[in-house]
Amino acid sequence: MDSNQKPTIGFIGLGIMGSSMAGHLLAAGYPVNVYNRSKDKTNALVEKGAKWYDTVGDLAANSNVIITMVGYPTDVEEIYFGTGKILDRASNAYFIDMTTSSPSLAARIAQEAEKRGCHSLDAPVSGGDIGARNAKLSIMVGGKQADFDAVLPILKIMGSNIVLQGGPGAGQHTKMCNQIVIAGTIMGVSEGLAYAKQAGLDANKVMESIGGGAASGFQLLNLGTKMIAGDFAPGFYVEHFLKDLGIALDEAGKIQLDMPAVSLAKRLYDDLVAKGCARDGTQVLYTKYIPK
């Protein structure tokens, strides 16, 4: 990329996190092209100077760097490999897939990108809506060192903890580690606060004590507070976390690793989805522990 001028960035997927991330890029002076399945979600960005494209392919053809942050691996596969989509239309571009997706799919995209003279990085993130709004995301990257170095200034606008983990797919594997840890932690937070409630304690006072001790952490301080308040609005959708747990279990099977905590978390979230909680935040798990 020409270091003397800012590359044009195409951003696909303007959801809860993507809209904030694209907004930071705009504010930093980058030309930003946008596409989202629901066009109305891009209105605020377009008003600030982003350029809307009607198709993924047209956006790809007019962007130097293409960032994707969509829902599921099937969505990633479609926007990259679909006829007339990213791989068909992009030219000498850098691809940064920030979706939490399959490591094997990330490696496949990188292989096809190289055949076409493009560059690819898998760069899933952690930090949720709060991290996206505050540009404090943790970004886990897989790909070539030279490609990482080329796009690092862009990544730094969206995150504060950015690490190249290895080759293609390594970023996605690292994100699975993150989700595995969260799965166990959020169950612990839910159980601990449910115990406080059933024992007749003041949950806010409990938080004063354990929030400053060895149990403290993002899940307790942020989601625990929401659990106590009965606030189950999404920072991260249950259905998306359930997708991540499925990927983690699939990958664990490939390396012959048993993960009982993740298996339990998946069963609990499956039950919540069956009860209509797919679009709630992950903290709704708390309701599974409160006696009816």
- Taken from the alpha-carbon principal axes, the silhouette is globular
Strand content: 5-15%
User: Could you state the oligomeric state of the chains shown?
Assistant: single chain
How is the largest sheet built, in terms of strand order? 3-2-1-4-5-6
Portion in helices: 40-55%
Provide a count of the helices: 13
Poorly predicted residue ranges: none
End-to-end Cα distance: 59 Å
Q: Can you tell me the number of structural domains?
A: 2
CATH topology of the largest domain: Rossmann fold
Question: Got a strand count?
Answer: 9
Which second-level CATH architecture of the largest domain applies? 3-Layer(aba) Sandwich
CATH homologous superfamily classification of the largest domain: NAD(P)-binding Rossmann-like Domain
Task: Give the mean pLDDT.
Answer: 96
- Structural classification: alpha/beta
One letter per element, helices H and strands E, the order comes to EHEHEHEHHEHEEHEHEHHHHH
Specify the CATH class of the largest domain: Alpha Beta
* Largest sheet data: 6 strands, parallel
Rg calc: 20 Å
